[in-house]
Amino acid sequence: MALDWALASAHHLAVFGLVAILACEIALTARGVDAVATGRIARVDAWFGIAAAAVVAAGVARVFLGDKGPAYYGANSLFWAKMAVFALVGMLSILPTLQFLRWRREGRADPAFRPDPRALASVRRFLFIEAALVALLPILAAGMARGFGS
Questions:
Q1: pTM for this entry
Q2: CA 94, CA 99: separation in Å to the nearest integer?
Q3: Burial class for 5, CB neighbours closer than 10 Å (0-12, 13-18, 19+)
Q4: From start to end of 32-144, where are the E strands?
Q5: Where are the domains of the chain?
Q6: φ, ψ for residue 133 (rounded to 5)?
Q7: Mean pLDDT confidence for 50-73
């Protein structure tokens, strides 16, 4: 039981970290983004990837080492909905990541660099869609924890 608690705690902390980093990205792109900010945003986005990997690692550990076991998760439709939403968030995060890396490169080359406002608006749109989808994860998890989806 202690292992299950530790794995659940690690998983939840990783998810909360992911949410905090996503909120930070939204905040960092809210105002004028300049050459200095592009480097900061790219570093924060790298942490988003690390947090996502931690979510996956803790989640896989919960499936295979936790009290409920793989049979419970494999047969649960809400679990698969959670996996689909998380995968969609991952796919949607690719465009902002590529844009952040491009901006950082351009910001290093030109200290007066500022991203195109339309590109910035597009990135922010993706970030807000990611945030909306991430908000579904605890809803699905709460249903799953109460036996729905089995």
A1: 0.91
A2: 9
A3: exposed
A4: none
A5: 2-145
A6: -70, -40
A7: 95
